[in-house]
């Protein structure tokens, strides 16, 4: 009997499952999930070049600047600023393979992006979420859903064009 | 909250994997959704692992049941039996577990992985202590000389 056969079965939580669980606990969270017509190996490196990717798919963000980047327990921690409507908002980012959690300072705003290979990596399952994780913000969900849907449409178009 | 998820992932993964088997990943996701949605109801932080264990076992059994063609009637759980396992044909741990009902897998996890007493496992699952004993006996006998958790 091989070691694999003797092993006690252990379940896993992939990046998208983790993102779904986090999103389900925030009343204002709006998300979109679907398949991008681009290989995972091309999609995720492009997404995680935040200075390039975010202003291209999020029409509300004019500029993203990475201020600091450091490794932390198997991931990367970034400090960035995202300029929107003339205001530069600082975010803390946790970046892993397939998982990107962005939290504005004081946790006033949260952005989650998660991706997994689909069709053996030929395409990409992508999950995008935005939320205001504060009490009494449930009514913002409709607005956030429009934002997220717009971002996802742009991402789908960019993916089909090879970014 | 993400830090909490990362810390609990290995623990929840062992429970959900052993009980829900091929649907363990789904059970894990459902567990974390329930944990994060209800975290504010947890009054005593020291009780976190026991509380999470309760949710993980419940969700894993529920998800595993959902995967069966013939769903299990909860009122029959205390006496439900499974077909005897022919130890000679046991291929591996996963296939042995797959031959057990989700509730039996839950008892194995609680007694032999989590180390709960039979009385505590009975209280945890809301069944009689004798039910735990009989299910455990049947589950363990499927693993004679083969189980290495």
Question: Could you please describe the fold and organization of this structure?
Answer:
In chain A, strands 1-7-6-5-4-3-2 form a 7-stranded antiparallel beta sheet, with helices on both faces. Chain A has helices at residues 3-6, 15-24, 40-48, 50-57, 141-160; strands at 30-36, 63-72, 75-84, 87-96, 99-104, 110-118, 123-131. The model of chain A has no long low-confidence stretch (mean pLDDT 92). In chain A, a hairpin with a 2-residue loop joins strand 4 and strand 5 (99-104). Chain A is of the alpha+beta class and 163 residues long. Chain B is 62% helix and 0% strand. Chain B is mainly alpha-helical. Mean pLDDT of chain B is 79; it is low at 68-91. Chain B has helices at residues 2-20, 24-38, 48-66, 93-98, 102-113, 118-125, 129-141. Chain B folds into 2 domains: 2-66; 74-141, Arc Repressor Mutant, subunit A.
Topology diagram in text:
The complex is a heterodimer of chains A (163) and B (149).
Chain A: H1 3-6, H2 15-24, E1 30-36, H3 40-48, H4 50-57, E2 63-72, E3 75-84, E4 87-96, E5 99-104, E6 110-118, E7 123-131, H5 141-160
Antiparallel strand pairs in A: 1-7, 2-3, 3-4, 4-5, 5-6, 6-7
Chain B: H1 2-20, H2 24-38, H3 48-66, H4 93-98, H5 102-113, H6 118-125, H7 129-141
Helix pairs in contact in B: 1-2, 1-3, 1-5, 2-3, 5-7, 6-7
């Amino acid at each position: 009997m091989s070691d694999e056969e003797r092993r006690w079965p252990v379940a896993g939580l992939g990046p998208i499952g983790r993102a779904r669980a986090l999103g389900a606990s925030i009343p204002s969270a709006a998300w979109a999930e679907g398949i991008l017509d681009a290989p995972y190996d091309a999609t995720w490196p492009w997404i995680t070049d935040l200075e390039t990717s975010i202003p291209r798919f999020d029409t509300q963000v004019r500029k993203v600047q990475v201020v600091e980047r450091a490794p932390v327990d198997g991931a990367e921690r970034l400090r960035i600023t995202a300029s929107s409507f003339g205001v530069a908002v600082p975010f803390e980012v946790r970046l892993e393979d397939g998982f990107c959690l962005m939290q504005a300072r004081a946790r006033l705003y949260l952005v989650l992006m998660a991706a997994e290979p689909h069709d053996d990596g030929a395409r990409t399952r992508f999950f995008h979420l935005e939320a205001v994780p504060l009490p009494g913000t449930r009514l913002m969900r409709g607005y956030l859903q429009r934002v997220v849907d717009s971002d996802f449409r742009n991402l789908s178009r960019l993916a089909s064009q090879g970014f | 909250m993400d830090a909490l998820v990362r810390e609990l992932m290995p623990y929840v993964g062992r429970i959900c994997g052993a009980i829900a088997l091929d649907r363990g990943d789904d059970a894990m996701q459902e567990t974390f959704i329930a944990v994060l949605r209800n975290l504010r109801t947890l009054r005593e932080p020291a009780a976190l692992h026991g509380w999470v264990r309760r949710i993980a076992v419940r969700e894993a059994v529920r998800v595993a049941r959902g995967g069966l063609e013939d769903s299990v009637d909860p009122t029959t759980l205390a006496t439900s039996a499974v077909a005897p396992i022919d130890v000679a044909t046991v291929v591996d741990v996963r296939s042995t577990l797959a031959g057990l009902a989700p509730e039996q897998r839950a008892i194995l996890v609680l007694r032999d992985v989590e180390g709960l007493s039979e009385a505590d496992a009975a209280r945890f699952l809301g069944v009689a202590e004798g039910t735990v004993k009989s299910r455990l006996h049947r589950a363990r006998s499927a693993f004679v000389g083969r189980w290495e958790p």
